Predict the 3D structure of the following.
Amino acid sequence: MKILIADDDPQLLRALRITLGARGYEIVTAADGVGALDAAIEHHPDLVMLDLGMPNLDGIAVIEGLRGWSQVPVLVVSGRTGASDKVEALDAGADDYVTKPFSIDELLARIRALTRRVVPVDQEPVVMLGDVAVDLSAKSVMRTIADRTEAVRLTPTEWRILETLLRNPGRLVTRETLLTEVWGPNHTGDSGYLRLYLGQLRKKLEADPSRPRYLHTEAGMGYRFSPGAPEGS
C-alpha cells in the first residue's frame, strides 16, 4: 500500500518514512502543498496524510484540490487542536483527523480503519431513491425526470451523511455514529447539525420532504435509510 505524507517538518517525514516503511508501507513524501498535489497526481497513493500548516498551499487547499478529482482517503495529522480546525478540514473532504503529538499505535490504527473502508470501484453500488441515482463509486447524485437527467449538488458534509446512511440500508444509524463519522468524536452532542443537514438532504432528494420515503428520523435515536420504501411510509 502506498501512502503520501505531506508535511514541512523534515524530521517528522524521515521518522514516518522509516516507521511506516518498516511495516510494509510504500512511502512518498512532499514538503509543501504544491508538492503534495503533484505527488498525488504522479503516484496515485492509496492514502494521503497531511499537515494543515504547510507553505505554498495549506492543508485545506490541498484537500480541496484532491477532492476535485480523487476520493483517496485523507488523514490530517496536525498540531492544530481547535474544534474549528477539525470541522473545517472534515468539511473540506478529510476523512479523519489526528492531533500532534500522536502515538504510532494510534496512527497505525487510523490508517487501518481508513483503508478498510476502501472498496474496489467495480464493487460500489448505485442506490436508487425514486428518480434519484446515487453512485457511490463516482460520488455523484443524478436525478432523471422524463428524458432529462441533471446533477444534484451535495456539499461534502451532506455527501458523508448520505453515504453513511446508504451503506447501512434498513439499519438504524444513531446520532452519535453519524456525528462521529462526519465531525469526529468531540462532536457527539451536536445533534442540531444533523437535523439541519438531514433537512437539506430531504429537500434535495425526496419528492415530498415533509413526508420522506427514504431518509427517516427515528425519534430520540437517529436516522434510517429505507430502500424501496412504499409511498407515504
